[in-house]
Amino acid sequence: MFRATIDRRRPALRASAALALLALTAGAVTACDGHGSAARRPPSAHTVSSATGRAGAAELHMIENAGHRLAFHVTPGRGATVVLDAGGGEDSSYWNGIVPRLHEATGATVITYDRAGLGKSDAVPGPWRVKSAVSDLEAGLRQLGVTGNVTLVSHSQAGEIATYFARNNPKLLSGAVLVDASLPPLYTDEEIARLVALNRPQVEEARKDPDEPRNRQLLAIAASYVPMHRAYHRATWPDSVPATVLVSEKTPFDGSPEDVRRWLDAAASFAQDGPGRRLVTARGSSHDIPKDRPGLVLKEVEKMVAAHH
């Protein structure tokens, strides 16, 4: 979805709610037998660089999928794997403050990655397609040797990737923490129309500098926004995958009370719509819960990992 307000702490052309919820804003690889064992590195996952001799240091793996390369950053651990997926317009660096603390607290392998067109990953021309983003994540985890016991942590737009990924790969996931994520109940025809109108000025501004990565992603998302979100409204989450729904108090729409209400209602509806789901409110937080309340994110991820370790 599009973000209703511009975050003044970032450049004016920052990805808006569309990015935030569409794909908004974020791991390898230790599960080999479905229960999480030692990591392996198959030849298809090319290690570009690695930190030698330093425990807890991330390794960069370049993964190939559908003709483009994607950067996956892996902090090796044991047992479970935690995959962090950032929101729209954000690359893996969004999680830099959380990765070391999460690795230390859980001992798990922690993976972050740059979606196509962001960070060190290749850009892909044309409209943004959630199925392509899901395919990229699937290819990365497969080539890194991840086969189970994965906790997926998805912020904002990445909630859309998480929903389709979970539907396709329920046995791979032991759980998910959806951090102020874009969720299907939000996207009624009325709300889609509101979001398109709300973000039209930002889309037009982005056209002035279409090669800037965040602008490029925003324009790609805008090109497919309406049909993609009509389809997403009908998407379902598998009952076999537990999920913690972590919602911000201010939401991406701080300043738009009607959209704030709809965002909060969508999170509550999703949490109530299946077994194994919990709703947790990040009091006082903006949409950027990982920045405003990192301790809360860590706490909920630790709970999810511990429950299935």
TrEMBL record:
Keywords: Signal
Superkingdom of this protein's organism: Bacteria
Key word Signal present: yes
Record carries keyword Repressor: no
Domain AB hydrolase-1: 82-297
Listed SUPFAM superfamilies: alpha/beta-Hydrolases
Pfam families, A to Z: Abhydrolase_6 (PF12697)
Region (Disordered): 33-53
Annotated PANTHER family: BLL5160 PROTEIN, HYDROLASE, ALPHA/BETA FOLD FAMILY PROTEIN
Protein name (database record): Beta-lactamase
